[in-house]
Structure formats: C-alpha cells, structure tokens
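Our working data are protein records whose layout never changes between entries. The record below serves as our worked example for the rest of this section:
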Amino acid sequence: MGLWDIVFAWQRKPYIRFKPPPPGNMSWPKSAHQWVRQGQFRGPKFRRDEVLSADGQFLGEVVVGIAGAILTFGQLCYLAVADSKWELTDADVEATAGPIKLGICVDAAAEDGATAMLLRGRVRADAAFPALTVGAPVHVGTTTGAVQVAAPVAGGDTVRVIGYGNTADELYFCPDNSYSVV
C-alpha cells in the first residue's frame, strides 16, 4: 500500500495506522504527513456506509497523496510517475489513461494539497458521474477527469475499463490493467 495504511476498523470510527518510513533516503511527504497527523483525515466522509446512502459516499481501499491539479470528489485521476502527484485522466492522451495507476478522488484538494484516492471499491458521485447502466462497463472519459459509459471511438483515444455500474448512481471501481488505443 505504499507508505500509508488506511485501516477501517469494524468500530464506529476509522483509524489510521502508520508504517515506518523505509530505510534510505525516502521519506513521507511532509504536507500529507502533517495533514494526517493533525487529524483532518478523520470525519464523516470516511465512515463505513455499506449502502452508499447519499451522494459523496464510498467504501473501499483508499490511499492519501498529493494533488497535482485542483481535484473534486468523483474525478478520475492517475498517479504521475514524474512527481508522484495525482493528476486528471483523459482518454485522448494515452499516457494519462493507459499503463498507469488510477484512482477516484474522494477528498477534494487544491493543487499541491493533500488528497485521498479510492484505488478499489464502491463510490457514489451523482454530480461527477453520468447515469450508469447496471452491470455495464465504465471507461476512462474523453473529458478531463471524467468517466463515461460508452467506450471512446475517436482515433487515438485510449479505451480502458475502470469498473462497472452497480446502480445508476454507484460505480464499482476496479480498473482493468489492460487497455487499447483506437
């Protein structure tokens, strides 16, 4: 899971368990470390809600990181290799939608601010997602940071399945590692 472990207890409140930093010259990102240490990560957004009863709810594997752009809840992001920041995807650009790690933003952030990404799980983002088809695949969108039900068809577009619709509002996010370019 990297340097951070987000662990959801089967109790009323989530808790965070820190792994010690690895040996050598690697260290924890200072701003994300301060963000978690100050307790700002705890709150109602991260509580256990198995039915995803309202917009803005999620359940699954989450990691914290640094935003490389202004991010809002429900946007599809990728982890940029150059600076280890979460950037917005775009199916028109293979490098941002193809062979990279994807996540759904579950904590809005300003550029260079601390954020949290859902790596696998369920998310409900009524404002960010189109109407999903139950059981149908959902793809990286041709609009920056968006998801779409129909596979991109324009020349040069990257086609990658990122999950499946559980309901019209809920996405089961499980990005496929394979992709193709039209």
